[in-house]
Amino acid sequence: MIGKRPDYSKMTKMKRCELAESIFIEHPRLKELIAQIRHAQLYSEISAEPECVFVGGLPGAGKTTLTEHYEQLFPRVIHEDRVEVPVLCGRVPSKATDKNLATALLLKLEDPAADKGTAFNRTMRLCRFIRVCGVRLIILDEFQHFVDKDSWRVLKNVSDWLKNLIDETGVPIVLIGMPYAVEILDAPGNEQLQRRFSVRSSIEPFGWDTDEERKQFRVFLRKVDEKLPLNEPSYLSDPLTAFRVYCATNGRVGKVMKVVRRATELALDDGLERLRLDTLAAAYDERLMADQPERVNPFRSRQEDLRVVPFEEPQMNFAAMSRRSRRKAREEAISHVLRV
Q1: Which H/E stretch holds residue 322?
Q2: Cα–Cα distance between 55 and 33 in angstroms, integer?
Q3: pLDDT in the model for residue 314
Q4: Which of 59, 181, 193, 261 allows an S-S link to 177, with CB 3.0 to 4.6 Å?
Q5: Are β-strands 199-202 and 53-56 bridged in parallel, bridged antiparallel, or unpaired?
Q6: What is the pLDDT of residue 190?
Q7: Coil, strand or helix: which one is 164?
Q8: If we measure between CA atoms, which residue out of 66, 57, 67 comes closest to residue 313?
Q9: Residues 164 and 198 placed together within one structural domain of the fold
Q10: Can you tell me the distance from the alpha carbon of 68 to that of 12, in angstroms, rounded to the nearest whole number?
Q11: What 3-state class would DSSP assign to 86?
C-alpha cells in the first residue's frame, strides 16, 4: 500500500533530482552490517586491541552507499582549535603504496602538505592527525588494490603499513572490497594482518529464489517508490515490475538506484509524475547496458521471456597467481642465463 505523497510540483527539476540522489533505504541487510561496524567502533575503545572488520561485496551491492551512510552518522565537528573527525573514510589508490595511501588519508583530513615528505614522514603525520582529530574508526574502500595486478602479488609493504597503522593508533579499521579480496588477508606471510581482521562479513544482494526473498526485495522497492520525488506512485513493487527490476540488477541495490535515479530524471524531462516501463527501459540502456552489452533489456522483454541471468564476476586466486608469477620470473631468469 503506497502512502500519501508530498506535493513536489512547486520544486525545480534539479531539486527533485537531488532528492532522488539522496534516497537511502536502511534495509535489514544493511542494518546488520551497520550494527557490526558500530560494535567494532565501540568495543575497540575497551578491548586489548582494535576489532577490525572486512566487508566484501560485488559491484553494485551497495559498498559505497554503506561507507557514505556510516560516515554521515558521525559528522565532523568544528572546534575552535581543531576539527573532530570521528569516522575517517578513504579509498585505496589503484596502485597502492604506503606513501600514496598515507597521502589519500591525509587529504581526507585536509592536510595542506598531504603530498609532502617521505612515506615515513607522511605516516607519522597521519598518526598525529588521527589522534588530534579524534578519529575513532577508519574505513578503507577498494581493498583489492592491495594486490599488484601485474604480478598478482600481495603488496607486503602496504599490508605491513596497515598493520603498523593499527598498532600505532589503536583505531579499528574496516576494509571494504571485492569478495575475493579476503584472500589478501589469508595470503602466506600475512598472518598478523589476518589475525587483526578475524571479523568477516559481506554485503549481499537481494535474492529472488524464495517467497521471503521476493517479499524483501519488493518491500525495498516499495520504500524506494515512496521516496521518489514524483507526485504519482510508480508501483515498482508490483510483482511483474519487481521481477523486471530484479532481472535488470540481480537484486543489487547500487544498480537498482542507478536505473531508478536516471529514470526519475528522464520522467521529469518528459513532464511525467511516475516511472513508466519505457522510462525504466531508457534508463537501463544508459546506465547498465554498457556493463553487460549481451544482455536483453528486461523492461522491453515480454513477460514470458524474462529470465534471471547471473552477472559474470571476476574470480581470482591470489595464491595460485602468485605461484605462477614466481614460476614465470624464475623461467625468465633461467632463460636469460642460458642465452648468456
Answers
A1: helix 318-339
A2: 9
A3: 62
A4: 181
A5: parallel
A6: 85
A7: helix
A8: 57
A9: yes
A10: 26
A11: coil
Domain span at 241? 206-305
- Residue 274 CA to residue 205 CA, distance in Å, equals 26
CA dihedral (194, 71, 39, 58) positive or negative: negative
Cell numbers that stand for 153 in this block: 602479488
Tell me, yes or no, whether 109 and 128 share the same domain.
yes
What are the backbone angles phi and psi of residue 117, rounded to the nearest 5°? 95, 170
Antiparallel, parallel or unpaired: β 173-177 and 153-154: unpaired
Grid cell 556493463 is found at 291
The structural domain count of the chain equals 2
Q: Which backbone phi and psi does 200 adopt, to 5 degrees?
A: -120, 130
CA distances, 98 to each of 94, 162, 190, 195, 314 (Å): 12, 8, 16, 20, 26
The strand ranges marked E within 99-186 are: 137-141, 147-148, 153-154, 173-177
The radius of gyration computed from the CA coordinates of the chain, to the nearest angstrom, equals 23
CB 61, CB 29: distance < 8 Å:
no
Give the cell for residue 233.
506512485
Q: What are phi and psi of 220, to 5 degrees?
A: -60, -45
Q: The domain that contains 157 carries what CATH number?
A: 3.40.50.300
Q: What residue type is assigned to position 46 of the chain?
A: I
Measured CA to CA, the distance from residue 64 to residue 170 in angstroms comes to 25
Output the 3-class SS for 228-261.
CCCCCCCCCCCHHHHHHHHHHHCCCHHHHHHHHH
The number of residues in the chain equals: 340
- Can you tell me the distance from the alpha carbon of 75 to that of 191, in angstroms, rounded to the nearest whole number? 34
Mean pLDDT of the chain: 89
Indicate whether 105 and 213 sit together in one domain. Answer: no
Instruction: Give the integer Cα–Cα distance in Å for 136 and 130.
Output: 8
d(CA 144, CA 57): 11
Tens digit of each residue's pLDDT (9 = 90 or more) over 174-233: 999 999 999 889 888 888 888 899 899 999 999 999 999 999 999 999 999 999 999 999
Close Cβ partners of 148 (under 8 Å, ≥ 6 residues apart) = 95, 154, 155
